[in-house]
Amino acid sequence: MKIGFVGLGNMGGPMAANLAKAGHEVAGFDVAGITIEGVNSVASLADAAKDAQVVITMLPNGAILRGVADELIPVMAKGAVLCDCSTVDVESARAVANLCASHGLESLDAPVSGGIGGAQAGTLTFMAGGSAKAFAAMTPLLDIMGKKTVHCGDAGAGQAAKICNNMILGATMIATCEAFALADKIGLDRRKLYDVVSTSSGSSWSMNAYTPAPGVGVPSPADNDYKPGFAAELMLKDLRLSQQAARSVDADTPMGQLALGLYAQFVENEDGLGKDFSAMLPRFASKSRE
Ligand code: NAD
Prior knowledge:
Elements: E1 2-6, H1 12-21, E2 25-29, E3 40-41, H2 45-49, E4 54-57, H3 62-72, E5 81-84, H4 90-102, E6 106-109, E7 112-113, H5 115-121, E8 124-130, H6 132-145, E9 146-153, H7 157-186, H8 190-197, H9 205-208, H10 232-248, H11 254-269, H12 280-285
Parallel strand pairs: 1-2, 1-4, 2-3, 4-5, 5-6, 8-9
Antiparallel strand pairs: 6-8, 7-8
Helix pairs in contact: 1-5, 3-4, 7-10, 7-11, 10-11
The protein binds nicotinamide-adenine-dinucleotide.
Nicotinamide-adenine-dinucleotide binds near residues 31, 34 and 86.
């Protein structure tokens, strides 16, 4: 297939590389001039879009996505698919889908879970929103970049699933880190806490698959000095998106709001910027009750 790929950063770069490795013809564009082995670097958005059957975007936020989509969409061939894999607000995802429809294009919002490791290994989970036709067209490509794809509903449903998932993740990571810090102060060994909780009702992905304590449980960013992984500022971004969505539909999400406040404090006023989101554990461990 002829694929245009826009945004070759931490996530987009390895995703584009995996498509090229699978034998697809990938034209890649990034404003930062990033080049990826196996991907043909092109000089503009238009060059990435023209002749492509599919254009994939992996960009920082909804405002950038909207600007890029405004330039890509008029150049794309009728019937082609624009698939955005970035994490953006539901409103931007729907606006881009409407613009695609008005130009005779298919579209899919397909944000990912799995982080940089998942992008490199081709083991991402995709949560997709859009028509059955767009989903069917994209599935073979998503299967190369990921291990699981769920069609969540119409345009915006992929982004909705992503922010709900990450609102749970933010809250459970904080709860898990709090519990480790409390165990330390009570005098309970971290390994014993892990042994109990990972097989009990307090278990979660945060405890079992991403254990935030160094040397305990599975290997995770905690064992690598909390280098991300999934950066605390990206968790903050996703929690902001979840609260933006909650406000827009008048949903009561107090745990999400509290998690947002804690990550904002950690990233903006403490030393959380650039650390993995599981570095909440040393943060709690260093604090006393206020
Ligand atoms: P990144 O900043 O590494 O990559 C984004 C890339 O987009 C950059 O290389 C930038 O130069 C490029 N870009 C910006 N504006 C552009 C434009 N107008 N035209 C072309 N290229 C442009 O970010 P990332 O970590 O790869 O994340 C990308 C998206 O994936 C974000 O929406 C993020 O929330 C989401 N995400 C990231 C992770 C993660 O662990 N990094 C996990 C899940 C989801």
